[in-house]
Write a structure and sequence with these properties.
five-stranded antiparallel sheet, 16 helices, Helicase, Ruva Protein, domain 3, alpha+beta, 8% strand
Length: 344
């Protein structure tokens, strides 16, 4: 396992430095102080107490390494196969199987309540924090304030900053210290602060604790996946499946709609929604060559994360909910595949 982590680090480092990343120009002391003063005023207007603002913002300074991490994300340079090789590892599958079995009773109870299969809850925690083991140790206020100042995603991170201050102001963090990833995500679930305020769930009655309570982490994940954007989770179907295309796939590809979902990166192509039976009639098959199920009651779309030369998937309504957790086709597919592997 240590060897794999070393390889992963080297691989990621290569891609980070191989990417044409713009070195950030850090603000002068005056520029930073003027901006931070305005942020403090805005936080006060939003109802954050002066004590919380002073305690967490008075001595905060921008970090160039945080901006570089944001601009030079390695996953943007990978193919799907490379991404899956480093995210769905044998050890992650093995640990996930044991984790699912160990918490079987609690997961079933929470899954039944929110009407979601437990394997998806476990897959999200596996992908986000290696089942709670890797939650991050970076001061969230420093990370988020830095990213709120940086022009690339300033508006988004200003919202996260005010949400993070609200979390601290309401004393919702058991340790009193908000820590997590360089991007401001926290806990086993790696929720961003706005998502925490919207979806974090106190299942065991001891106060919301997605850092130490598996019950709260499970319930918070389930709550988010099943309530996001008023798009219901379909308890009786899965996320999708990998498929083999028909021979005329190149011509079919040109008919696909071009989309650029807000926050989801480059333009992609996707199909209109059709039933599984219609996809079968077009010549799409299961990855083993068998026919797709003849069902008219399941709405599905075709996605091609790497275009015509890459792997193809027929995805169902639940895929959309996973995509809202992290707006990346690579991520959503990896959650689906990991959920399959930890139950097989």
């Amino acid at each position: 396992m240590i060897v794999r982590f070393v390889i992963f680090f080297v691989f990621i480092s290569f891609y980070v430095y191989a990417t044409d990343c713009e070195k950030p120009k850090m603000p002068t002391d005056d520029e930073w102080n003027i901006w931070l003063t305005n942020i403090k005023k805005e936080a006060l207007q939003k109802g954050i107490s002066q004590n919380t603002i002073s305690q967490h913002l008075n001595n905060v300074l921008p970090q160039s390494k945080i901006i570089m991490r944001d601009r030079c994300q390695a996953a943007s340079t990978m193919t799907l196969d490379e991404y899956l090789f480093y995210t769905i590892t044998k050890d992650k599958i093995f640990v996930g199987k044991n984790f699912l079995k160990k918490h079987e009773v609690l997961l079933k109870e929470i899954g039944d309540y929110f009407q979601i299969q437990p394997r998806f809850i476990v897959a999200v925690l596996g992908m986000e924090s290696y089942y709670g083991r890797n939650q991050g140790k970076i001061n969230s206020i420093i990370a988020i304030t830095t990213l709120a100042f940086d022009r690339r995603r300033s508006d988004f991170y200003k919202k996260q900053l005010f949400a993070a201050l609200e979390i601290l102001d309401k004393d919702l963090v058991p340790s009193g210290q908000l820590k997590g990833s360089w991007g401001g995500a926290v806990g086993m679930t790696q929720m961003i602060p706005t998502t925490f305020l919207e979806s974090a769930y106190d299942w065991d009655g001891g106060g919301i604790d997605i850092w130490n309570s598996y019950a709260d982490a499970f319930a918070s994940t389930a709550n988010y996946l099943t309530s996001i954007n008023k798009n219901p989770w379909h308890f009786d179907t899965t996320w999708g499946r990998e498929v083999l295309p028909p021979n005329n796939i190149a011509a079919f590809y040109e008919t696909l709609e071009q989309i650029n979902p807000k926050g989801c990166g480059a333009v992609k192509r996707r199909s209109k929604a059709m039933s599984l039976s219609e996809w079968s009639d077009l010549g799409f098959k299961k990855i083993n060559g068998d026919s797709l199920p003849s069902r008219n009651d399941i709405e599905a779309r075709l996605i091609m994360p790497d275009g015509l030369k890459g792997r193809m998937f027929i995805v169902y309504q639940n895929y959309k909910n996973i995509l809202y957790y992290n707006c990346s086709a690579y991520y959503a597919v990896s959650i689906g595949l990991l959920s399959d592997k930890i139950t097989n």
